[in-house]
Specification:
Layout: H1 11-18, H2 21-29, E1 36-37, H3 38-45, H4 49-61, E2 65-70, E3 73-78, H5 81-93, H6 102-113, E4 115-117, E5 120-122, H7 123-135, E6 139-140, E7 165-166, H8 168-177, H9 181-184, E8 191-194, E9 199-202, H10 204-217, E10 220-222, E11 229-231, H11 233-242
Antiparallel strand pairs: 1-3, 2-3, 4-5, 6-7, 8-9, 10-11
Length: 245
């Protein structure tokens, strides 16, 4: 029995789901890998509670989000990493909106200071972390800098280079942090080109494992702005202590 023939992908239909600014904010609120109930999503995305269900229905219909019932609650999350990839790609193409209020300025500053990207650290904190790992000789074969003349070094995109590798010293110290061996064995290391800092931050299994561990240790916490991260006093002390030679 032969499978039915299929035509071209219905790009316009899926693209329409991204066309509404409020739906994009809903997706962005889920872009750090969390599963959230509709009420929390509405709060974080700045969408009226009376309309968030309609936006979620459209996103579910286009298979951009999935829902899981737990007890009396329904929790929504992105359907796959591809959805966040589309958001990051659109961020590269879209013009930067002018900041017209103190609230918008505060939000922009929060995202630039520290945020999650593909479930790893980005913004100034993510870039500074990679620089510290390079300075301390934990990571070798790269300088953490963006090369605007390199075709594969594109903003808001996974880096395509193969330069970054963990050193033996880095493997030893990161294992002492509690980073799983599976994350330490990935080579070369993956990275992203940070769109606010115009430099590299860690990505891939190691970047995700470090972020998860920092949450577990209480070194970072989630901010009120979706995807924003706060470095706690414990985190400042822990990073200062761990990066000593």
């Amino acid at each position: 029995m032969t499978s039915p023939a299929t035509g071209d992908p219905e790009l316009a239909r899926v693209a329409a789901a991204f066309a509404d600014p409020k739906r994009v904010r809903v997706l962005m609120a889920l872009a750090d890998g969390r599963s959230l109930p509709a009420g929390r999503l509405a709060e974080e995305a700045g969408v009226a509670a009376s309309t968030v269900s309609n936006h979620l229905s459209i996103l579910l219909d286009q298979q951009l989000v999935v829902v899981r019932r737990q007890g009396r609650h329904r929790y929504y999350r992105l359907a796959s990493d591809d959805v966040e990839g589309v958001l990051e790609a659109l961020a590269r193409l879209a013009p930067q909106a002018p900041i017209s209020s103190l609230r918008e300025h505060t939000r922009a500053q929060a995202l630039r200071t520290a945020r999650t990207c593909y479930q790893h650290l980005a913004g100034r904190l993510g870039v500074d972390l990679l620089q510290q790992l390079i300075v301390r000789d934990w990571v070798a074969r790269g300088n953490g800098l963006h090369d605007p003349d390199d075709a594969v070094d594109r903003f808001s995109a996974p880096g395509q280079g193969t330069q970054y590798h963990l050193t033996d010293l880095g493997t030893k110290h990161l294992a002492a942090w509690g980073i799983p061996r599976s994350a330490l064995s990935a080579a070369p290391l993956r990275y992203c080109v940070d769109w606010t800092e115009q430099a590299h931050h860690l990505a891939g299994p190691l970047g995700k494992a470090i972020t998860t561990r920092f949450f577990d240790l209480g070194w970072i916490t989630r901010g009120r702005v979706p995807r924003s991260i706060h470095l706690t006093p414990e985190g400042e002390a822990g990073l200062a202590n761990c990066t000593q030679r």
